Amino acid sequence: MYERMSCSYLLCTILLFVAVLLAVTVTGTILFMNHYQAPPMSDGLPHISTNQDEANALVTVERGDGSRINIFIDPNCPDYNSNFMRLEGVQTSLLHSLTDHDSDLKSVKGQDRALLVSLAEEVAKLSAHAGQLKMDYESLRRGQSSLGQDLNTLQTEQGRLIQLLSDSQINMVKVVNSVSDALNAMQKENVGLKARVKADLQRAPVRGARFKGCSNGSRPRDCGDLYASGQREDGIYSVFPIHHPSGFQVYCDMTTDGGGWTVIQRREDGSVNFFRGWESYREGFGKITGEHWLGLKQIHALSIQGNYELRIDLEDFENNTAYAQYGTFGVGLFSVDADDDGYPLTVGDYSGNAGDSLLKHNGMKFTTKDKDNDHSENNCASFYHGAWWYRNCHTSNLNGQYLRGQHTSYADGIEWSSWTGWQYSLKFSEIKIRPTRDPENK
Ligand SMILES: [Ca+2]
Hints:
Blueprint: H1 2-35, E1 47-49, E2 57-62, E3 68-72, H2 80-216, H3 223-228, E4 235-239, E5 248-253, E6 261-267, H4 278-283, E7 285-286, E8 292-293, H5 296-303, E9 308-315, E10 321-331, H6 338-341, E11 345-352, H7 380-384, E12 396-397, E13 405-406, E14 415-416, H8 417-420, E15 424-425, E16 428-435
Antiparallel strand pairs: 1-2, 2-3, 4-5, 5-6, 6-8, 6-16, 7-8, 9-10, 9-16, 10-11, 12-14, 13-15
The chain binds calcium ion (CA).
């Protein structure tokens, strides 16, 4: 609608412009022609009048020949003013619009400003928050570093504790070891002590009588008594142990290492068979002057009288001699019935030059070929042709076969392994016991 209207206005405007231009041109032409007198025409000068006869004609040109040219203006063309008015209205409205827009812009700016202000406030808040966060972070970092320090301290403490624990463990092990050593020593000592106490108890009633008896002719309990009574000759004597009042004959060695030794076994020529059973070893066999075994019953009766020491003299077939001595000796010292108990051996405190081949037999019961008291699944006496305090089986076998020196069989001769090994059967062996002498009575 507006489009069509504006188009009409445009057309009208152009037409008006063309009409005005035409009028001006015509007027100009007429003025020019009036100024410059044309040659006289028979028709006379054209006459131009404005709107004389013709209705609505703007200008009327009357030629000399009487013809007229009317220049019309469209009576329907709308009024300019109204257009201008409209235009002014439009301009005013535009101005209003612009003003409004400006004010809108201003209000927008205000809004923006408010937004900016609020944004700034938000930014400030955020910045403050960030500052707080940073402070928190810093304090956390400080906390972390202090935690790290605490951790380091704890680790150091832990290391120190581990070290302490390790040290205390080492110390504990040392203490345990030393306690264990002390216990072992006490146990060893205890064995000897028990033997001595028991022997002391058993012989206590006659201890006073030993020396008194010897001096006034009372019966000797062993070769020690005989030696103490002045006997100095090796040979056969009768002894009367406390628990064997009927007495028995023994061979006394009155010359070796101070004398007073009661011989309990001798090997010297192989004349006596030593491969015998339990009863023979309990009661004794052989000749007292030659090869013999005194008997476990007799050895027991002697050794329980007091503290006894043991000496073993040895000789090989090259006439080399050696000896082994033990400060403690006894059989069946702790037995209620020694025979039932197997006459267990108590031996300790080695000295000598033959080496120790008996301590490993300490605590072992006596085994014969017909009575197996050893720790072997076999019978060691049968296996090694002897009779001894076998364990599993032996380091010495002095009741073995008389094999005369080197032999190819294994450990079944008269062996003292620490001196001549397990395949040398000795020429001579003598086992003897003597009551240990108090240092002041030696
Ligand atoms: Ca056995």
